[in-house]
Amino acid sequence: MNAPPLSNSLREYARGIAGGLMFSLPLLYTMEVWWTGFVAEPLRLLLYMAAVFVLLLGYNHYVGLHRDASWSEVVIDSVEEMGLGLLVAAGMLFLLGQIELDHLAFEIVGKVTIEAMTVAIGISIGTSQLGGSAEKSKGGAEASAKTEVTFEGQLAIASCGAVLFAANVAPTEEILLIATESHLLKLVGIALLSLALTALILYYIEFTGSRRLVRAGSVVVVIVGTAISYAIALTVSAGILWFFGRFDVALLTCVSQTVVLGLAATLGASAGRLLLQ
Amino acid sequence: MKKPKKNWLEWMVFGFSSLLIVSVIGFLVYESATIGDAPPDIRLRIGPPEARSGYFAVPIEAMNEGDQTAEGVHIEVVLKTAAGEEERADLEVQFLPRRGAREAWVTFKSDPLKGSLEARVLGYEKP
Question: Distance from the CA of A149 to the CA of which of A132, B63, B110, B118 falls in 20 to 30 A?
């Protein structure tokens, strides 16, 4: 295969940027996220970048546009997505009046970095999922129908979906509010609802792709699959909450917040995962 | 390992992205290495008063010289007029990033030039 024509790559980038904006706009428009940009320690931002890069590698490897890609291509794609994410986030924040040239370098870099990470995940998904029919033969829906995605692949994609869904609500004050004000039994209710939704989406309501990606064999399969999905969701929501500095409180509040956010995360880990590949 | 086939645009985007990421990481590493753990230390600077329609506006610059961000910084400015009267004004800065500065204005009815101004931070919280 020769190098692709220029117009193709241009279109691919534009598609990615459209996807990036689509998935990250709620975060770009949220005050709490801007604030976290300069409240968070630099080390925390570095860890966040590393975590997102691993997610991008996973997503690009298992679902990405170039499915037969070697690892070097996957790395290159991920670097490009993260770079474009930084660029798009900076441009958007500037237009939204959230970064001014007279701001401190740290404030600018912090805000841009934190926003860029979701933009990058959006770009990755946009590039591979919003493609037209011409691209299908290269790796769109048809190609993924042919190849089975492995268990590790499912884990990676579920994590991506969970991050994408949970990140939109995680930074808001409402999560803490709900977590502290709800009766404990209601929190148990939220957890049960999360589990029920996960099981239904994955095994019952025949969501797009569910036939192909999950097999409802026995009850055991359903229980194990649901448990794994919800476990991913809880892990991701705990990670995001920690990142947004929401874990400097009592253990019970931490757990409650994780459960409250877990509902969004588990929708991402189940429905998101089916839609993203 | 097969060599990825890319056109010049893709290589350019890749090169630019790498550069951007490396500089962001470099900057964050530098910041985390140099930044300490000092609590917020807010210094106020009173600018020259300006006459507006019916009142006087005084620019206030708040600078946080600590390594931690302060939230809800409440600032009070007292004007002692020549007649011995006191006029108070206050304002709140929502966020004052570490090593960052914010500008704000307070207003007075009497001319601050004919008296003395004093500004102080009433309080702030940890974000």
Answer: A132
